[in-house]
TrEMBL record:
Keywords: Glyoxylate bypass, Transferase, Tricarboxylic acid cycle. GO terms for cellular component: cytoplasm. Residues 194-424 form the Malate synthase TIM barrel domain. This is malate synthase. Pfam families: MS_C, MS_TIM-barrel. Its EC number is 2.3.3.9. The lineage of its organism: Bacteria, Pseudomonadati, Bacteroidota, Cytophagia, Cytophagales. It comes from Larkinella punicea.
Length: 630
């Protein structure tokens, strides 16, 4: 199969696009069409639900999981072959997450992120190819390059790691009162390496198939990571582990399963060698948890409650229902209405035995706090972070995600104190599939819905769009009103947390959220209906604050380049009657573009395509083909 690689990248990244990797990509090209079809099906289901105003439902027990010979009822009963949990995944108290590359940085600087991760003392680290990894220029390839250098213990990486270890110890001496790393070379072997491939909904920016169709990013990410690193990982006695994001249905899980089988077969690995965690980030997936487990069979090891994407997916799935209105984002914790019920289904699903009595893992969701700020601010936020982790541990999670290496030794003691490697097989009632269960998954409860909440949504959404344009798909952000206030910490924001903010604003504008509190500054009262005018007023005010902010919070150069583009995108997303399915689409088509007029044309093109043809634009609009690889 022919591949077309953009510009001269085959040459400049020949350490990533190795012959073996290109051969595997060529062999997997047939999956491209299958993925594109699955994504068209997704959009159609979404459009049909909106048109007919229908909710997501459970699958018919007698039906087969699409793409498999497994009956839904069998999956629910655990009548399928799952996986034994490998030794290096048995204890995953803390998994850190983060990108393995930085924007516009030489390798010696960019690879520092991998050193922080592998020296952090986290039980596992999910190196991100998706929501936290910037995609400007060639970042997805830099990410792959850095991981390969680190996993192969290249001297370039080891030199950086030695230096970073000293810096980390300086911080931990002052913050924790002790060194966090005693022997940096030994420490590098501690953390299980995990990679998150991009979801099925995204296209790679650098490779197309023979027809000129962009290759699905999932194929590219999984293939490059596995092919380039499987031997080194296995030689070190490590598992090959992926996180799979944003799966919506068991049928999509079956596509992933077949893709992984084909990849294993291509490079001579026994079927089921690659292990996967699945992020439960979609309302539809929560209706099909056992079915997804079954479809992934021997590859599947566990679920993660990917809470931020999840909130967005519920908002998106319920966009047609005028009564479904989320409150302030700060109120949507894991114990809030539909979130509580979602978490409960995940823990029940992983603790249902399969055919051989195997259970699966539940890794708790993301803790977005970072311990940087005033002493009082850090103390208060860390208390909350530890309390949140303690709650998840008690509810049955075998571990947690943190967004920064500084958080590892703050949250890990929650599990250290308990001491059990995991909570595999803890008793919970079996899943049921009643109307009441389905209703619980969209349960809204009364909670603050106010102007402070709206300002927070607007300000961070604009800053997030700006950071994305600068190549930082994750960034530490806070609302502009709190710039300079060290008692309020910056929180980790990434594609997921950025997107929910706009989704909630869309609900408030189009469904007329009723404010719960008076706001003297705008003169609105409890009972005021949120409107487009109110949104426009808040956006104008918050944008002005960002223009006036110091460079520490809003890069000066971004104020005339990526920030106005972020504003244009936020406005179109929030004000369009037709809700875009993914915020990232509008951001992606403007990657590497700093011109507002060009951006406006692209945004218009996207919206016209969506409204008129019911299609998304996901390809790299700046793709310049060179000679094909055959
Ligand atoms: C909802 C979800 O999908 S969650 C999963 C996806 N999200 C993520 O993975 C977010 C991960 N976190 C991050 O990317 C970062 O912590 C951020 C962007 C939030 C904050 O980063 P910064 O503002 O650079 O933090 P800070 O200045 O304290 O970082 C200090 C150093 O640690 C590095 N670092 C910080 N966090 C991480 C991380 N998670 N992984 C690797 N390195 C990190 C920074 O790059 C920086 O390196 P340097 O010394 O070479 O400059
Ligand atoms: O991807 C993770 C999430 O919390 O969303």
């Amino acid at each position: 199969m022919t591949l077309i690689i953009r510009d001269n990248l085959q040459e400049t990244y020949k350490d990533v696009y190795t012959d073996e990797a290109l051969a595997a990509l060529s062999a997997l090209v047939p999956f491209n069409q299958r993925i594109k079809t699955a994504m068209a099906d997704r959009l159609k289901r979404r459009a049909d639900r909106q048109k007919t105003k229908t909710r997501i439902t459970f699958l018919e027990p007698e039906s087969l999981i699409p793409g498999t010979a497994i009956a839904v009822q069998d999956a629910r009963d655990g009548q399928f072959e799952g996986s034994v949990i490998p030794a290096d995944l048995q204890r995953q108290w803390i998994q850190g997450t983060g990108p393995a590359a930085k924007p516009n940085a030489p390798v010696e600087n960019s690879i520092r992120n991998v050193a922080y991760a592998l020296l952090s003392g986290a039980d596992g680290w999910m190196f991100d190819g998706e929501d936290a990894l910037g995609q400007i220029t060639t970042m997805s390839l830099d990410n792959q390059r850095n991981l390969k250098l680190a996993i192969h213990k290249d001297p370039v990486f080891l030199k950086v790691a030695e230096q970073v270890a000293q810096e980390m110890n300086r911080w931990s001496n002052s913050f924790l009162g002790r060194e966090m790393i005693t022997d940096w070379e030994t420490q590098l072997n501690f953390t299980t390496k995990i990679f998150r491939a991009r979801g099925l909904h995204l296209d790679d920016r650098h490779i197309r198939d023979a027809d000129g169709t962009a290759l699905a990013a999932s194929i590219v990410d999984a293939t490059l990571y596995v092919v380039n690193n499987h031997q080194a990982l296995q030689k070190a006695g490590s598992s090959i582990v992926l996180y799979l994001p944003k799966i919506q249905t068991a049928g999509e899980a079956a596509v992933w399963n077949d893709l992984l089988d084909a990849l294993e077969s291509q490079i001579g690995l026994p079927a089921g060698t690659i292990k996967v965690y699945v992020l439960v980030e979609q309302l539809e997936a929560t209706h099909q948890l056992m079915e997804i487990r079954a479809a992934l069979g021997k590859h599947f090891v566990g679920y993660n409650t990917g809470r931020w994407d999840y909130i967005n997916s519920v908002s998106d799935a319920m966009a047609w229902d005028k009564t479904f209105i989320n409150p302030n984002i700060e109120a949507i914790t894991m114990t809030y209405g539909y979130m509580r019920n979602y978490e409960d289904r995940v823990r029940r699903a992983v603790n249902t035995p399969d055919l051989h009595g195997n259970f699966a893992l539940w890794q708790g969701g993301m803790e977005p706090n970072i311990p940087v700020g005033s002493e009082a601010g850090v103390a208060a936020s860390m208390e909350k972070a530890v309390a949140g982790a303690g709650r998840e541990q008690r509810e049955g999670a075998s571990g947690k995600w943190v967004a920064h290496w500084k958080m590892v030794h703050i949250v890990r003691p929650v599990w250290e104190k308990v001491g059990e490697a995991n909570q595999l097989g803890r008793e919970f009632p079996r899943l049921t599939y009643t109307q009441a269960d389905a209703d619980g998954l969209i349960l809204i409860e009364p909670a603050p819905t106010d102007i402070r909440g709206a300002r927070n949504l607007v300000s961070v959404a604009l800053q997030y769009g700006n950071a994305f344009g600068q190549g930082m798909q994750a960034a530490a952000l806070k609302p502009a009103d709190f710039f300079g206030n060290d008692d309020i910490l910056y929180l980790m924001e990434d594609m997921a947390t950025g997107e929910i903010r706009l989704s909630i604003l869309w609900e408030w504008v189009h469904k007329g959220a009723v404010l719960t509190d008076d706001d003297p500054e705008t003169g609105t009262k409890a009972g005021t209906v949120f409107s487009e005018e109110l949104y426009q007023k808040l956006v104008a005010e918050e944008y002005e604050k960002l223009l006036k902010a110091a460079s520490k919070d809003v890069y000066e150069s971004s104020k005339t380049t990526t920030l106005p583009i972020a504003l244009a995108i936020a406005n179109v997303y929030t004000l369009s009657a037709v809700k875009p399915p993914w915020f990232i689409d509008l951001l992606n088509i403007n990657l590497n573009n700093l011109d507002l007029d060009v951006a406006k044309k692209r945004i218009q093109l996207y919206m016209n395509t969506l409204v008129e043809d019911g299609k998304r634009i996901t390809e790299n609009l700046d793709f310049v083909a060179t000679s094909p690889y055959v």
